[in-house]
Design goal:
Helix 2 links the parallel strand 2 and strand 3. Helix 3 runs parallel beside helix 5. The protein is α/β, with parallel strands linked by helices. The chain has one domain: 3-Layer(aba) Sandwich (Rossmann fold). It has a five-stranded parallel β-sheet, with helices on both faces. About 6% of the residues have low confidence. The chain has five helices and five strands.
């Protein structure tokens, strides 16, 4: 049913915990998992190499500690640039060429208390996405 899953990550604790779920879900559905990170216009674009390294380390960790067959996982990395993570992710999803079937997003990220003032990235993506969104709550365990 799902062929291509987008997993936005901001390297927060919740996003790291959600990676386990996203990888397991993608493996179960034999889907490609797209790790997505939005780099603010003012941030260093070298974050791509940091993201790639983080993903590779996490996949190796899941293979060793949880026995997941991460070698068979089809995955890729997308780096988006812009001032709003939610807007950039929605724009990426809206592009039909990307063929995203599902988004798996953590319920909390780096925004912390600011989310009460301006709305969380997850909430904005849920409201505006044209594809289904699975909002993973960090207190849930597999």
């Amino acid at each position: 049913m799902f062929k291509k899953i987008l997993f936005p990550t901001d390297f927060s604790d919740c996003a790291i915990k959600t990676t386990d779920f996203a990888v397991s879900f993608a493996l179960f559905h034999n889907a490609e998992l797209i790790f997505c990170h939005v780099i603010k216009d003012s941030e260093d674009s070298s974050e791509y190499s940091i993201l790639k390294n983080e993903v590779e380390l996490k996949l190796e960790d899941l293979k060793l500690k949880k026995g997941l067959d991460t070698d068979s996982l089809k995955w890729d990395i997308v780096t988006l640039f812009g001032h709003s993570a939610a807007e950039e992710i929605i724009e990426y999803i809206d592009d039909a060429d990307n063929n995203i079937d599902l988004i798996i997003i953590p319920s909390h990220g780096k925004t912390g208390f600011k989310k009460f003032l301006i709305g969380s990235t997850a909430e904005r993506i849920i409201r505006h996405s044209k594809v289904p969104v699975l909002n993973y709550k960090k207190h849930l365990e597999l």
